[in-house]
Amino acid sequence: MGKKAKNTGESGGRASGLSRRDFLRGSAAAGALGGALLAGGEGAGAAVAAPRRLAGVELAGPGAVAMSFRINGKRRQASLEPRVTLLDALRDHLDLTAAKKVCDRGTCGACTVIVAGQAVYACSVLAIEAQGKAIETVEGLGGPDKLQPLQAAFVANDAQQCGFCTPGFVMAAKALLDRNPHPALADVHRALSGNFCRCGTYAGLRQAVLGTSRADAGAEDGGHG
Q1: What is the pTM of this model?
Q2: Cys bridge to 142: 94, 148, 149, 159, which one at CB 3.0-4.6 A?
Q3: Which range (114-123, 136-145, 168-177) has the least confidence?
Q4: Which residues pair with 159 in a beta bridge?
Q5: For residue 62, is the peptide bond before it cis, meaning its omega torsion is within 30 degrees of 0?
Q6: How far apart are the C-alpha atoms of 109 and 127, rounded to whole Å?
Q7: C-beta separation of 125 from 104 below 8 A
Q8: Distance, CA of 53 to CA of 56 (rounded, Å)
Q9: Rounded distance, CA 117 to CA 176, Å?
Q10: Spatial separation of the C-alpha atoms in residues 6 and 28, rounded to whole Å
Q11: One-character DSSP codes across the chain
């Protein structure tokens, strides 16, 4: 009583459907294949070169490969390893440093940019995946001499203190306004919920977005008058 059943490691006494012997055989085979693909010496390298296509999919890397991006309406080129994130590509290779590298885990929103019309965390997107898609960053909006209306609303509503998270909030807000020019407060709450402000300027942030919406609505009404 209370005695545990003996684990035989064979198919008759296991619950998982995979015996210890099967597992070891598979591991050995995988290790041998991996070693052959990675080996650079004579014998293995030439005969078992890493395939350039696998199941119809073209492979890239592991070294740097040429990449082309469409950022803020302009074509940009870079030579990057496939493992490089869009955030690192922007900051370290394309000199677009507005998107900030804070958590680097896809939780704080400081690196938010717009890709194909959607607000995304640039730290969670591979640069190679962003090729061929329209990418927008804060650098593509207004500058200090001429702010874009949303940026001006952030200033007017004191929507920033340290300012480190501000570019991410601006891009998240722009993505919202692009698809919904006149959002309700609940819509703003939802759209900005993925961004974190350590200074706690949430009231100003929300009012900045709503203020931009109201200003756009006023401009439309004036245009019809």
Answers
A1: 0.71
A2: 148
A3: 136-145
A4: none
A5: yes
A6: 17
A7: no
A8: 6
A9: 9
A10: 25
A11: --PPPP--SSGGG-SSS--HHHHHHHHHHHHHHHHHHH--STTHHHHTPPPSEETTEE---SS-EEEEEEETTEEEEEEE-TT-BHHHIIIIIS----S--SSSSSSS-TTEEEETTEEEEGGGSBGGGGTTSEEE-GGGS-BTTB--HHHHHHHHTT--SS-SSHHHHHHHHHHHHHH-SS--HHHHHHHHTT---TT--HHHHHHHHHHHHHHHHHHHHHHH-
What mean pLDDT do residues 77-96 have?
97
What are the b/e assignments for 35-58, b being 16+ CB within 10 Å? Answer: eeeeeeeeeeeeeeeeeeeeeeee
By CB atoms closer than 10 A (0-12, 13-18, 19+), residue 168 is buried
Record the tokens describing residue 25, joined without a space: 């055989």
> How does pLDDT run across 149-183, given as a tens digit for each residue?
999 999 999 998 999 999 999 999 999 999 999 99
151 alpha-carbon distance from chain centroid = 23
Q: Helices 202-224 and 166-179: crossing angle, nearest 10°? A: 40
Alpha-carbon distance of 219 to 223, in angstroms, equals 6
Average pLDDT for residues 78-86, to the nearest whole number? 96
Q: Which residue do the tokens 């350039």 mark?
A: 52
| C-alpha dihedral sign at 52, 56, 59, 65 | positive
Question: Among the listed ranges 102-106, 141-145, 171-175, 202-206, which one has the minimum average pLDDT value?
Answer: 141-145
Q: Which residues have a Cβ under 8 Å from the Cβ of 35 and sit 6 or more positions away?
A: 44
